[in-house]
Write a structure and sequence with these properties.
Radius of gyration: 22 Å
Bound molecules: zinc ion
Strand order of the largest sheet: 1-2-3-4-5
Distance between the termini: 67 Å
């Protein structure tokens, strides 16, 4: 179904009333410029320029009766991305995939949202006339990124109980910040 709803200025109430949905998939190779523009905070998390590989999301909404019978918009959001981060085990770049799914319920104002958010399983947000869904997608992905990213299987064998000589050999085989520092300190 083609949709006239704009994800950057979404009328959540109309979107829910129409039981509409929106989908997007952006990849670096095809939509690099849009990806960097729409998700610049996520791009900043990457360990190298253009390190955000892809972002996909799917949103759909519906109206459900609230506690006092009034209809409230509920929105389900599924997000997924691939971003290049430094693996904390081998310290080389790793393409990390993350995904998340969450329900959001929209209420009349910030005060109600704050009051009801704590006691609800879903996230409660204040209804805005032009809601930025892209920002919400990015927020969810930023929260889903692991604090300690790691390869499933690191490309090199990392010495864990190796002798001093082997460890030194691994260090020397790889340009590191320490090596760069040592170069700087050399008398010219
Ligand atoms: Zn690794």
């Amino acid at each position: 179904m083609s949709s006239h709803f704009s994800p950057e200025q979404l009328d959540v109430m109309s979107f829910a009333r129409a039981r509409a949905h929106l989908d997007s998939r952006l990849t670096r190779d095809v939509d690099g410029a849009s990806l960097a523009r729409l998700f610049n905070r996520l791009s900043d998390e990457a360990c190298e320029p253009q390190g955000l590989n892809s972002v996909s999301w799917h949103a759909q909404a519906e109206l459900r009766p609230g506690a006092s019978g009034e209809l409230q918009p509920w929105l389900s959001l599924e997000v997924e991305c691939s971003v290049r981060l430094v693996c904390q085990r081998c310290l080389t770049p790793a393409d990390i995939s993350v995904s998340a799914q969450r329900w959001f319920r929209f209420v009349a104002d910030e005060a109600t949202a704050a009051a009801e958010d704590d006691e609800s399983d879903e996230d409660v947000l204040a209804l805005e006339p032009r809601f930025n869904l892209i920002e919400l997608v990015e927020d969810e992905l930023l929260m889903a990124i692991p604090l300690v990213p790691m390869h499933d299987v690191c490309p090199d064998v990392v010495p864990t109980s190796a002798g001093e000589e082997e460890f030194q050999a691994v260090l020397e085989s790889r340009p590191s910040a320490f090596a760069a520092l040592a170069q700087l300190k050399k008398p010219t």
